[in-house]
Amino acid sequence: METLLSFSQNRMWHHLTFNIPTTITHSNKQQIYDLFLSNIFQYHPISITECITKICRFYDTNKAIDLINKGLDAIKDSHMYSGEFNSLVVELEIYKSVLMLEKDDKDVSMSIEENKNEEVSSSICSNVDVGKNACKNQDLDKNIVSGISYAEKCVFEFKNIEMNDKVFSSYNFLSYKYYEKGGDYENCVWKLLKYMKYVQKCSDNSNVCNNNSGDNNTCTITSDVTSNINISKESYLILLEKLVKYSLISKNFYNFTEINTLHEFDKISPLLKQYFQLVQEGNSKQVEQNYQQIEQLFGNHALTIRKKVYYVGLINLCFSQTTRSISFKQIQYNLNVSDHDINSFLLEALGLGLLKGKIDGYNKMLYFSTIVPRCLGEEELDKMRWKFGNWRSKIEEVIEMMEK
């Protein structure tokens, strides 16, 4: 603290803001909070942003939001420095929005717990008590709307703003939280997948999961909001499991191979991993056998998973064909689709845009020209390498023969 005070007294603002994140602890956080705010209008906007995003995790949600608000005021009112600081404002606004959504979650949990503790038998509950509880719920609803509304404003207002990779990852995380709140699993998956891929990119660049360090519980990668704070493996796995779950219950179809190659995929819930792999393989028979368990795990979304596995199975079958056609008989045998359902099944697959082609009902054949792209597995990549190697050797033989 003495060093920080010396920097402040000597008006060494850059040194002050640069050293605060490495000096702050839970024991001195209030002193640093007061010291940082006492001269906040003297700091460069970049220093304000970097310092705030690094120290906010030491404070409770309300205080962190208050700190961000003061930082935003200082950046917007800055007359000491020239330049465009819109990207810094966007970064702090995104951070603030995520914190507001998290605050809503905490408020909901606390309200539910309070209601449980204060619950009385309905037969003796007075109208006054009911009115009090109604007021509490109304206040809670207002807070939730406030957090979601602010997130909605940020998601759509910042959609077309140019951002660097770090801020864009924060934007994707905020978008994921927003769409998750609204139950829009389709957009939720796209945004969370982008965020997770950025996390993986950071981990690949900096050997993030330090297995050699002896610490298996933390990863020095991005936090839920910025790349300046560590994220625990537990938090990372929670996000990964959500990504897997939402990709299954979403109505959209994804590159499942891309998802199961993310770091730590093997460490997710065994049951969730099993069902994900069944869908990825298009194993409709196994899904039908385990459908009751899938219903218990996914509830009303189980039917979506059941439909999805059949369509993924069809895509995989089409990929395995050497020609651009496949017989009804082959589809029915592999996917266990009845004669009565085969035509409507194929029509729906075409309607979903999973493949393009035509159905020959007379000859009972499906002809396709395009299949929805997907990542290839290791075995498929090995086969492709062998094919290219084989073609190359044949071409080299022809060239050698012609030269002679």
UniProtKB/TrEMBL annotation:
Identify the Pfam families for this entry: PCI
Q: Which residues form the PCI domain?
A: 207-373
* A GO cellular component entry from the record: proteasome regulatory particle, lid subcomplex
GO terms classed as biological process: ubiquitin-dependent protein catabolic process
Any GO MF annotation of the entry: structural molecule activity
The record, for PANTHER family, names: 26S PROTEASOME NON-ATPASE REGULATORY SUBUNIT 13
Q: What is this protein called?
A: Septin family protein
| Organism, as annotated | Vairimorpha apis BRL 01
Q: What is the lineage of its organism?
A: Eukaryota, Fungi, Fungi incertae sedis, Microsporidia, Nosematidae
